[in-house]
Design a protein that fits this description.
By secondary structure, the chain is an alpha+beta fold. About 20% of the residues lie in helices and about 30% in strands. The N and C termini lie far apart (about 40 Å).
């Protein structure tokens, strides 16, 4: 049986993570942590800054269910690419 294609696509760029979820896009600012970081994280994401989709959907809030799916997709991306991401 063929596997179902994920509706979420994660792309890491310099300074942000772009998440494409169906017909919407979310840009999440990331901070790169240096190698001296105590917790060995490579990237840091502030969850309280994730509220709205990018334009033209920027008046639509991101639901808790959507946020959980987005975070799961980001964690999956990180695992596949040997990246550590810390959420706060």
């Amino acid at each position: 049986m063929a596997s179902k294609k994920s509706a979420i696509n994660v792309i890491v760029t310099e300074g942000s993570i772009k998440v494409h979820y169906f017909d919407r896009t979310l840009t999440i600012k990331i901070e790169r942590l240096d190698d001296e970081a105590e917790d060995n994280s490579n990237l840091f994401i502030k969850l309280d800054e994730i509220e709205y989709w990018d334009a033209p959907d920027n008046i639509k809030t991101i639901s808790i269910v959507e946020l959980q799916k987005i975070l799961n997709a980001i964690e999956s991306y990180a695992e596949k690419n040997s990246t550590i991401i810390e959420f706060e």
